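ugh ok fine here u go
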Amino acid sequence: MAHREMLLRNLVTSLLLYEKIVTTEAKAKELRKLAEKIITLAKRQDLHARRQAAEVIADEKVLKKLFESIGTRYKDRNGGYTRITKLDYRMGDGAPLAAIELVGSGVAPEPLPKSGRWRGRREERPETSAQGPAERAEAGAGKAESVARP
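structure:
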């Protein structure tokens, strides 16, 4: 199996288990395609559909949940089983994040407020006293003279 296929299998298994996951925007868009197909299989409720879904989902607990609760929940719905909500950017590499969830599974996630242009910059430290750099150096020099050395 290719890495990409296994990644999507694991993502769809996690989505069906937890009903909401946070991943990158590109992965969420690809995951939506596979998740919609698997849920459509679960709506059929026959043995052939269960075996086709088992090729993608390796976890028996998730497969059972898919056919018993998720498939029956979307019995009267024609597609559109998932919702993608854009979130903020990942701190390490700046990748755009998105939450993907099953529609009707609960409350939609709140998108994070846009933090602005300087989101990664550290803020300036406020001065601890009213002294400038020159006064601090003079005060520090006085402390060094008071230390007795053998």
